[in-house]
Amino acid sequence: MQELRRSPHDRDELIQVGQYRSHPCQHPLRMVSVLWQGVWYRYLTNVLDPQVLSARQVCELSRRRWRIEDAFALTKRLLDLAYVWTGSTNAVQLQIYATLIFYAVLVTICQQIAQALGEPLARIAVEMVFRAF
């Protein structure tokens, strides 16, 4: 382990992983740790140089990735994209495109609601807006 940066609220270090010390992984990783509201959150990346990807960028990319995962989960659950009702390639594509277009419209409406209320978009429940239709 090699520390790149350390403070009371964050750490940036190069680590070696593997099943045993005698059999480590051949590729080092970088672990960025951040203390947020009393809980340590840890993020791994294979970008070892902080000049190429800062610790802040590592955290931000992870947050954005989870926003994408949340969008897919919401789309599958709320808009019923989890079930494809046909085997035709064309029909599957049409169902996916229609669902994603509706989702884009729904998010745009949520953005307009957030702007009208003077709140950040994250405070607007997409599911509640959908159910209001």
Concise synopsis of the structure shown:
45% of the residues lie in helices and 23% in strands. It has 133 residues and is of the alpha+beta class.
Q: What is the helix tally? A: 3
- State the shape: flat
Helix content: 40-55%
Strand content: 15-25%
Strand pairing plus helix content: what structural class? alpha+beta
Give the number of domains.
2
Helix and strand pattern: EEEEEEHHH
- Contiguous uncertain segments of 5+ residues: none
Largest sheet: 4 strands, antiparallel
What is the number of E strands? Answer: 6
How many angstroms separate the termini? 54 Å
The multimeric state of the shown protein is single chain
Calculate Rg over CA atoms. 21 Å
Round the mean pLDDT to the nearest integer and report it.
85
